[in-house]
Structures are given as C-alpha cells and as structure tokens.
Fold:
Amino acid sequence: MAGDKSRHPLLDYQSAVGHYRHRFAEISVKETYMQSTASYKGQRALIVGMGMSGRSAAHFLLVQGAIVQGIDRDPSLQSLGEIEDLQKLGMRVQHEQESLDVKDFDFIVLSPGVPPTHPVVKAAKAAQIEVVGEIELGCRMLKQPAIGITGTNGKTTVTLLVTHILKQSGYPAKALGNVGVPFTRELMALQAQETIILELSSYQLETMQQKILEQAVILNVTPDHLDRYASMEEYASAKFNIGRCLTHAGKLFVEDKAWQDYGSLLQHGEANRYGYDEACLVYTDLQSVFYGGRRVFDLPTLLRGKRSHDVENILAAYALCAGRVSGEQFLHALASFKKPSHRIEFVLEKKGVRYYDDSKGTNIDAVVRAVQSLEGPIILIAGGVDKGASYHPWVDAFRGRVKAIYAIGQAAEKMHRELSAHFPLKIAASLDLAVRQAADQAQEGETVLLSPGCSSFDMFKDYAHRGEEFQRIVRQL
Structure:
C-alpha cells in the first residue's frame, strides 16, 4: 500500500490507525527521554512533509532534545491537534513556500509521500546535507531483530501474517512501518525480545540504508507509482534497495517472477527465490510446500490446485518464519489468521449477488489478482487517482470474467479510452451511484467488486475510508 498510506500533504490524522489518533500527550516526555540514547540531542532537523510519519519523526526527535522545524504545503496544518502538541514541545512549523535555508540544519527528514525531486531535497543534496526517512531515523537506534517486507502487492497481508505466525508460535513480534503504525512512534516502547516486522514501501526504501534486517522479502514487482518513477526499472530498483539493509548474515527472498524480471537490479548480496518452480528454495507444487527440496506441509484444502496470491503470500511468510517455526506450528497459526480489511473482503450477499470490498487494490496487478480470485461474472467498480500505468493489461485478464465496468474519479476518462472498446463501461459521478447502478445490473450468481486500481485521494481520505463507504452503501441498498 503501498501507495495510499503515505501521501503529501498533511494526512488527516483521524484516518490513521485507531490508537494513533490519540495525541502525543499520551507518552510521558520524561519517560521517553530516559529510554532513549539521546543521540540526536542538539541536532537541528528539518522535516519535509508533516503527514503521519513526519509528525511521528518530529515527536521522536523532540523528546531527545533535537531542534526541529517542520514544513508542509497544506496551510491548514497549524490547526491540527497533533501539530499544536508538537509546537508545545518546541517545534516550529511553516508553509513550504516561506523562505528557508537548508544550511541551517544538520539533516533533513523526508516524509515518504514527498518525492526526492522536492526543491528542499535538491537544495540539501547540493549542500551535502544528509536526507533520511522516518524509518531510517528509527533504525539507527534499533536494537531488536528486524524482518523487512516489500513488494507491489500483499505487503500488509504478509507483514501481519508473519507477525501472527511468530506470536502464535511463542515469539514476541510487532508489525510496524507502512502497515499503519509509524516506526518511530513505537520505537521507544518496544520490548527487548520483540522481533520487528517492517512493511516497507518503495518510497521508504529510497532513503533507508541501515543494515538491520536479519531477513527480507520482495513479494512481487508489477506496475505501480509510475506517476512518481520514470520507469518500471526505477520503481523496481527502489524495491531491490531492501538488499542493502540486510545484516552481514541476512537472508533475502524474492518472488520468482520478480527475480526473473528484475533480479539484475540487486546490488547488495544474494537472493533466494520462492514460487512455483522446484528450483526455488521455497516452492509449491500446488499441493504441498517444500523448503530446500523437503516437503514441509500440505497447503490448506481450499488453496490446492490453483496459483493465487494467497498461495504466494503463504510461501513468502513461511520463508521468513522457517528458521523459527515448524510446518505444524505454521499451519496451526495460519488457521486463525484473519486477513486485513478491504483486501478482497466479502461484505454480504443480497438477492444472490455477492459484494466484495477490495479498496486496498490500488494498482493494475492487484485488480487482476482480485478478479482472478472470484468465481462467476463480475461487475467491477474501479477508478480514483491514476498512477501512471496503462489499463490495457486488464483486457486479457478480464476476458470471460468481467461483465461490466463502472469507472469513477479522476481516472474514469482514461479507463474509458483504454477499455470501453472491450467491455461495457460507464462513468459514474460518485461511488454511491456506481454501487447502485452495478447492483441494478447484477444478476443472481454474479459479483459486484470494488477494486479501484487507483489511489483514493480525489474522493476519500484513504483506501480504508473508500472501503468503509463502499460497505456502508452496499448495506443500505
């Protein structure tokens, strides 16, 4: 999610994970000081982008005695409660267009939603001032073991699955990073024995370099964020940056197709493949899972015989857990795992029509995976903020599966140009209208699927808000 969870300008803090809605007053500044090593004391830091990660980085630095200034392009940020709390701790805040000299700072903290082409970042690099991200900021003080997870699709699911498997098997673990809870927000409260499971977006990996990952995985690399990256190679290279963050003995796993397509971009260390080829270290024959050629466990019955994102997520999760848990422990924990919301989530069935919420499907391949995972004719609701990739790959993938498409948001016209010759496609002025028109058209045995293939920020706070609205509308039909 990557994509939807780290935007610039200022994120509405009410869209963050529940416990992050509380103000920084929850944490005792005195206690945090005592727990920290104060390695940033007296350092002058400029934070570019005061979204969720930017605010977290600011608090992290302030309680260690750093001198912090924040900038953002959103003029309303001064009235945000968390910003006011940060100002009480000593942070200065200004609009990004106000005059600023980067030479007044020791380092720059770049929020993940702010591109490295930002003028302040360019000025900092020209002045040889270090630019880091919020994750990198925290990693420099991390003492716990860490596992990193990146890829285009499935990051959150695999991050939460690995965390669940380890915890159910008796190993304390905590999911942080792009999963929704900023890393620096939780760093000082971590237990010494906890393993940190870091979901890492390509944006975060651009500025991450600490060698702190004992294991890491690249789940897949398919078109996404091409509104930010000049090419697929540039985007893939950001993903493969995770290799530079491995410890000396760290182990990297890469999904087989991603390795075939982009493995040459790995500049740090070696990789182990996982997938459907028995030459991979971890693979499946669609009946069982094998590690190093040895059968470890059988796939759950419902997943046998067909390639799917669920199977690939299991392979990735087992690759990361194999050194600690047995196949039996893995399967036992897998049985109680609940997928995160808004990822091909069944909402309800009404008059024989099934409704699924895949609001987290924010790129081309995620929609293909959602469509391929469902049975029967599908009426698809898609659209939002276009991310630069073509929708043409949907033509072959949808043939014989998608009955009609309702397009919404900024991307609707582009979808109409690229897809209307192949599928009945109507542009709807709102999600509400799209759902109601799709429901009127759907017949018994068919499915209405929200899987946007786009970011949500033209109409919603984030993908979760979009999914919640979809479910509300469906229940009111």
Notes: Confidence is low (pLDDT under 50) at residues 1-38. The first helix runs from residue 29 to 35. The longest strand covers residues 246-255.
